[in-house]
């Protein structure tokens, strides 16, 4: 209707004087010149509202606007009427307003960790309610519905105090639901409920001077109710949807056209014409129009949106349109994984037995049910070639099992790995096909493992000398190892331990240490020394591990030189020094001669230039 505000204002401005004069002469629709407080004054075109004030409609009031989360999510129970509800959500549930409070019911289906949720009504300033902290925790409970059926449901019930100065209108109230999914993942969803107030102030009334502006005088056609036969739809069904239209304005309407347009491919109109025509509707008159719809066989469960378009004229030819969105509840057979049993931890190279328990939680029988292991994680392999487990048929509420034998590869990296399954099934009645997926995780553990190059010392070393010793280690496992150290323990040798740090899987580290030879600690200072080396490291859990081996080396006594040997060495050094000095003198002489020759050549060359 907002689209026609400008055109409507222009029409009113052009016709306001004739309309007033006609209104004064019209006995069926008098507009008093001097209106009492309970009646509106003359219309003010400059302040006419864009939206009419009307009675509440029965448009379905809750639409889940879900956050993207992994795994199972909560959903509204659209088919059940609980105590305190006039209709189900699928048929247009409206919260009740009485004795200064609004009672809102929101039934949610699904499973959470601990079967517990936290509910936070998101109230904002300017609403018809008393602001406050209404957050609370809620456990799933078994509730008996109005028809006597029993349901496990999170039945949210909020008694919301209303403000004394509340204004009429429709107000959205989002409910934020926080919970833990069954795998421990934090999740959040938001469901919005529309609260309609009709016992408050006229939102078009002015706030001062004791006078009121008149509401727009025109016909206003609104959806007043929706009925579906059957009440709950499933894939392959046909249904009659009856739309109740009411003229809540203050003028008659004419040339009314009502059309129905499904917003998804799940629904389609059976008749060729999606529009119905009514020549006239008087003030407060209510009419019903029925449309035939078909649900596609593979329609998914949930609230399916449908647009109701109403176009009409007033007595002067002014044109108006209203658009309302209703939601029809569609159900399906649903082969849902309700339990996945397996050991949460498996060692690399070990087998893993996974048992999936499925239940048909839908409202139709499911047939040709098959579960397939997708094998998206290459580290978790299926034992055998057949990756499909047939279950067959599951009636409503019936359960079945699918068992898979898997194996974690010996080379699987330590940590979490995905288990992914796909379930395909058909509607036993309509033949519509469905595909759902299920994911879980398993933790692979690996044993820390270390290899090293054999440490071999020189066969012998002279006391007082030093030598270099390389150390090389390898992480031969598939889990990190930490704080790798190597120490040599051998009598007569002094060296610091080698710290090689942390090693990722399939990596190595190398370090060279300097070893100094002294004497043996026993009475014999020289000879064969025996010892060992130790390589220590820690695994991811902080457990210490040890590798080692034996060492052997001959420590020799240093040679003692006589005085004669020392004199011969001294003389040899002096001879080498003298020889070095002689060569230096020869080189200097050669350099001087070269300089003289160069000077003579240059002098002759200059003389020749002067003679020329």
Describe the protein.
The chain is mainly β. It contains two helices and 37 strands. The protein has helices at 5-25, 563-611, and strands at residues 62-66, 75-76, 96-98, 101-109, 116-121, 136-139, 141-144, 150-161, 169-180, 186-197, 221-229, 233-234, 238-247, 253-262, 267-269, 275-281, 286-295, 302-313, 319-331, 335-341, 345-347, 351-360, 366-373, 380-382, 388-394, 399-408, 415-427, 433-445, 450-452, 460-462, 466-475, 481-490, 493-494, 498-503, 508-517, 527-538, 544-556. The longest helix has 49 residues, at 563-611. It starts with a helix and ends with a helix. Residues 1-6, 8-71 and 206-215 have low confidence and may be disordered.
Count up the helices.
2
Radius of gyration computed on alpha carbons: 46 Å
Q: Can you tell me the overall shape?
A: elongated
| Helical content (DSSP H or I, runs of 4+) | 10-25%
Q: How are the strands of the largest sheet arranged?
A: 1-10-9-5-6
Query: Strand fraction band?
Result: over 45%
Helix and strand composition category: mainly beta
- Uncertain runs: 1-6, 8-71, 206-215
First-to-last CA distance: 116 Å
Number of strands: 37
- Largest beta sheet, briefly? 5 strands, antiparallel
């Amino acid at each position: 209707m907002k689209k026609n505000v400008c055109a409507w204002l222009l029409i009113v401005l052009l016709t306001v004087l004739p309309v007033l004069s006609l209104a004064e002469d019209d006995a069926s629709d008098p507009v008093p010149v001097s209106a009492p407080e309970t009646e509106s004054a003359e219309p003010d075109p400059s302040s006419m509202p864009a939206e009419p004030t009307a009675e509440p409609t029965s448009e379905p009031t809750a639409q889940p606007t879900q956050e993207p989360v992994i795994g199972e999510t909560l959903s509204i129970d659209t088919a059940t009427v609980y105590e305190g509800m006039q209709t189900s959500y699928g048929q247009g549930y409206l919260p009740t307003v009485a004795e200064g409070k609004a009672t809102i019911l929101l039934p949610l289906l699904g499973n959470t960790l601990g079967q517990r949720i936290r509910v936070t009504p998101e109230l904002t300033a300017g609403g018809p309610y008393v602001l406050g902290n209404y957050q609370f925790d809620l456990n799933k409970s078994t509730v008996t519905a109005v028809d006597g059926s029993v349901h496990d449901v999170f039945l949210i019930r909020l008694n919301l105090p209303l403000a004394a100065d509340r204004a009429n209108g429709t107000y959205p109230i989002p409910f934020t639901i926080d919970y833990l999914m069954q795998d421990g993942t934090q999740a959040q969803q938001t469901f919005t409920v529309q609260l309609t107030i009709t016992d408050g102030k006229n939102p078009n009334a002015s706030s001062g001077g004791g006078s009121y502006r008149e509401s727009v005088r025109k016909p206003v056609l609104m959806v007043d109710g929706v009925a579906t036969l059957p009440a709950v739809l499933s894939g392959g069904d046909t249904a009659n949807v009856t739309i109740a239209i009411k003229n809540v304005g203050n003028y008659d309407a004419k040339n009314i056209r009502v059309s129905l347009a499904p917003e998804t491919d799940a629904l389609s109109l059976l008749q060729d014409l999606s529009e119905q025509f009514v020549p006239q509707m008087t003030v407060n008159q209510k009419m019903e129009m029925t449309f035939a719809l078909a649900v596609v066989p593979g329609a998914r469960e949930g609230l399916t949106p449908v647009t109701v378009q109403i176009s009409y004229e007033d007595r002067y030819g002014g044109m108006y349109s209203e658009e309302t969105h209703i939601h029809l509840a569609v159900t399906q057979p649903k082969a849902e994984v309700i339990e996945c049993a397996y050991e949460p931890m498996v060692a690399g190279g070990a087998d893993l037995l996974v048992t999936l328990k499925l239940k048909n939680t839908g409202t139709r029988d499911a047939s040709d049910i098959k579960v397939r292991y997708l094998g998206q994680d290459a580290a978790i392999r299926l034992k055998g070639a057949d990756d499909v487990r047939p279950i067959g048929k599951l009636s409503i509420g019936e359960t079945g099992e699918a068992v898979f034998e898997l194996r974690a590869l010996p080379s699987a990296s330590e940590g979490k790995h995905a288990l992914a399954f796909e379930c395909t099934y058909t509607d036993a009645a309509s033949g519509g096909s469905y595909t759902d997926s299920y994911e879980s995780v398993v933790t692979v553990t690996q044993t820390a493992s270390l290899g090293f190059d054999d440490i071999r010392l020189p066969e012998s070393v002279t006391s007082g000398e030093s030598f270099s010793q390389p150390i090389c280690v390898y992480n031969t496992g598939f889990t990190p190892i930490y704080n790798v150290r190597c120490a040599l323990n051998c009598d007569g040798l002094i060296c610091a331990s080698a710290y090689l740090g942390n090693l990722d899987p399939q990596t190595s580290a190398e370090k060279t240490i300097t070893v100094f030879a002294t004497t043996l600690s026993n009475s014999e200072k020289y000879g064969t020394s025996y010892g060992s080396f130790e390589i220590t490291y820690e695994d991811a859990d902080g457990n210490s591990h040890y590798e080692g081996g034996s060492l052997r080396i001959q420590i020799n006594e240093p040679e003692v030189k006589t005085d004669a040997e020392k004199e011969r060495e001294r003389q040899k050094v002096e001879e080498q020094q003298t020889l070095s000095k002689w060569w230096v003198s020869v080189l200097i002489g050669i350099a001087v001669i070269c300089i003289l020759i160069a000077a003579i050549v240059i002098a002759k060359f200059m003389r020749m230039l002067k003679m020329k």
